Amino acid sequence: MSLQNRNPIYPTLGNNIIFFSDAKVLGDVHVGNNVIFSANAYVINEDIPDDSIVFGMSPNLVIKHEPEKIKEYMKRIWKKN
């Protein structure tokens, strides 16, 4: 199959996302708003909800839903009131 006939799949990213060193997001991934990817996180073909912290590698991801912690961290990083 030639490259011209392929339908590439790209990640869909929300707002206020932080990627630490060597984090990777590949394929059909939908990332919500206010998400933090830890160093060396590797996500492929997964959905990540809003206000989450992501650790590990697909398919053994650890996704922690921490709205209050994320809100405070994002305020400091993005200087929001």
How does this model look, in words?
- By secondary structure, the chain is an alpha/beta fold.
- The chain has one helix and nine strands.
- It has one helix at residues 67-78, and strands at residues 12-13, 17-19, 24-26, 30-31, 35-37, 42-44, 47-48, 52-57, 60-65.
- The strands form three sheets. Strands 2-5-8-9 form a four-stranded mixed beta sheet, with no helix packed on it. The protein has a three-stranded parallel beta sheet with strand order 1-4-7, with no helix packed on it.
- The radius of gyration is 14 Å and the shape is globular.
- The termini are far apart.
- The mean pLDDT is 88.
User: pLDDT average, as an integer?
Assistant: 88
Strand order across the largest sheet = 2-5-8-9
Largest sheet, in brief, is: 4 strands, mixed
Order of helices and strands: EEEEEEEEEH
